[in-house]
Write a structure and sequence with these properties.
The protein is of the alpha/beta class. The chain contains 21 helices and 20 strands. The strands form four sheets. The chain has a seven-stranded parallel β-sheet with strand order 3-4-2-5-6-1-7, with helices on both faces. Strands 10-11-9-12-13-8-14 form a seven-stranded parallel β-sheet, with helices on both faces. The longest helix is centred in the C-terminal third of the chain and has 22 residues. The protein binds adenosine-5'-diphosphate (ADP) and magnesium ion.
Length: about 550
């Protein structure tokens, strides 16, 4: 079916204008096929994958059908979770931007019921709520269902997964006979079809076929990795691509928890999302995700489904998904609305067969890529740094800096020496090659600054009190990264901009290597062995 234009759908001017403001250029397939029959008053079953615009598919005709002169409740939308209820009501608010007389209210558990009751009393034509809370209000008679003309079950598969079947049925039984019932879902189970048989009247079945499930505009790659190397592979990719926002999928809740812990230990801003989290925790995570204080969201399929987050640059399949359809849902989270996106899948051994099935199903190629080596990471970062230098050379006046360089040339250095030294100073911060460390260590014990005792070596770290670093952050980082027990460490002296920590000689190499690839308080750490005379800090 052609992608219809919204203009050709006989929508009210207010809605058309709102759609224009939202930046929608044309209908998505589910919208093209579902909106006309809903406007005609038919019951509809709509099936299409996550991210295909199901909300507007029922939202637009729902708003068109509301009688603005009547303040009673006219439409009830049931959603599986509080996040989704909020998301759907946000989409509704955008759609009714120019409809001044329509009121929408999300109602869900966790929010004080009194406040909802007050809001409901003011006259709300549409509520968007979770089944539990909607039933609660019905029992209290704070929701009057007698004028309801439209019921919507959004993300029906998920609601059933979450055990809401009875609640849904209880609610549907109470709605007056004369009404429209719409059901939208990414997948359709026999259980859903049971519900539609009982509660829908000769429904129009709109299914957007699998072929269109394929998400365009996404580069898809896989890496052949060993299980134990996945974490390194992930962090390396993150370091290289430096995504603003990445979504990492694991197959189980436990995997999510473990990965989040490991990532946080390495100083990444990561949070997890899965079914075991209590509502306040989920809210907190989503809040952080929306305001950009998380760079990595680690999630299970069910937890991530239906959550609408834009601007995901990269999707990682930390585990190959069990179900082919999951793969499509997962990677559909990036490259939305015409943006380009990337999807990387970590594939262990025989999982390549699963991946082949996925390729066949999605009719796309997932291309094998070699994991970047540490040298690649370094080269990439050096190039980035050099690009920045080129920008500065192009744009800025460097007069006063020139003077400084000139004065150094008075000390018998050439401009080339100074430039090279500056480059080394900058790049060594993320240099991962450990030959310089070995050089340092092999210089011999005499040159090393003995810490508290003969056996300790003092290590300089370029983070300190100003970065809000505490001794326990240092101990934690060294313990996590280098596997050195905290109690093995000697004195830790924190200064404003740097820290000295005494490390047993036997652990020195491990600590130095680990610190080259680690962040403390999200700052890339630069570690050096403190030597006796050479440097001003020491
Ligand atoms: P679904 O419920 O199918 O998972 P959503 O309704 O959450 O999908 O929509 C996903 C995203 O796509 C939202 O950000 C929504 O605003 C956007 N969207 C919906 N319809 C269109 C359209 N016709 N053109 C562009 N973007 C759209
Ligand atoms: Mg949805």
């Amino acid at each position: 079916m052609e992608h219809l234009r919204f203009e050709d759908m006989n929508l009210s001017p207010e809605i058309c204008r709102a759609i224009l403001d939202m930046g929608f250029e044309e209908t998505t397939p589910i919208q093209a096929e579902a909106i006309p029959p809903i406007l005609e008053g038919r019951d509809v079953i709509g099936q299409s994958q996550t991210g295909t615009g199901k909300t507007a598919a029922f939202g637009i005709p729902c708003l068109e059908n509301i009688d603005e002169t009547d303040r009673s409740l006219q439409a009830v939308i049931l959603c599986p979770t509080r996040e989704l209820a909020i998301q759907v009501s946000e989409e509704f608010r955008k759609l009714l931007k120019y409809k001044d007389n329509i009121r929408v209210l999300p109602i869900y558990g966790g929010q004080p019921i009194d406040r909802q009751i007050v809001a409901l009393k003011k006259g709300v034509q549409i509520i968007i709520g979770t089944p539990g809370r909607v039933m609660d209000h019905m029992r209290r008679h704070t929701l009057k269902m007698d004028h309801v003309r439209m019921m919507v079950l959004d993300e029906a598969d998920e609601m059933l997964d979450m055990g809401f079947r009875e609640d849904i049925e209880t609610i549907l039984v109470k709605v007056p006979a004369e009404h429209q019932t719409l059901l939208f879902s990414a997948t359709l189970s026999p259980e859903i079809l049971d519900i539609t048989k009982r509660f829908q009247n000769d429904p129009v079945f709109v299914k957007i076929v699998r072929k269109e499930l394929t998400v365009p505009n996404i580069e898809q790659y896989y890496f052949d990795v060993k299980e134990k190397n996945k974490l390194d592979a992930l962090t390396r990719m993150i370091d290289i691509y430096d995504p603003k926002l990445a979504l990492v999928f694991c197959n189980t809740k436990k995997r999510v928890d473990d990965l989040v812990e490991a990532l946080q230990g390495r100083g990444y801003f990561a949070e997890g999302l899965h079914g075991d989290l209590k509502q306040p925790q989920r809210d907190k995570v989503m809040q952080k995700f929306r305001n950009g204080t998380i760079e990595l969201l680690v999630a299970t399929d069910v937890a991530a489904r239906g959550i609408d987050v834009d601007d995901v640059d990269i999707v990682f399949n930390y585990d190959v998904p069990q179900d082919e359809e999951y793969y499509v849902h997962r990677i559909g989270r990036t490259g939305r609305a015409g943006r380009s996106g990337k999807a990387f899948t970590f594939c262990v051994g025989k999982e390549i067969y699963k991946l082949r099935d996925i390729m066949r199903y999605t009719k796309t190629k997932i291309i094998q890529q070699k994991l970047p080596t540490l040298t690649d990471v370094e080269t990439m970062k050096t190039n980035l740094f050099l690009d920045q230098i080129r920008e500065i050379l192009k744009e800025e006046r460097l007069g006063s800096y020139m003077d400084t360089v000139e004065s150094m040339m008075g000390e018998e250095y050439t401009a080339m020496d100074v430039a090279a030294a500056l480059l080394k100073y900058n790049i060594s911060a993320f240099k991962v090659d450990d030959s310089d460390i070995l050089d340092d260590i092999n210089l011999g014990g005499t040159e090393l600054y003995g810490g508290d005792s003969e056996k300790m070596v003092r290590v300089f770290l370029n983070v300190g009190k100003k970065q809000k670093v505490r001794a326990k952050d240092i101990v934690g980082a060294i313990a996590n990264e280098a596997g050195v027990p905290g109690k093995a460490l000697g004195a830790i002296n924190l200064y404003d901009d740097y820290t000295f920590v005494d490390v047993p000689h036997e652990y020195l190499r491990d600590v130095m290597v680990a610190m080259k690839n680690c962040r403390i308080k999200n700052k890339k750490v630069h570690a050096e062995i403190a030597k006796k005379e050479k440097n001003k800090h020491r």
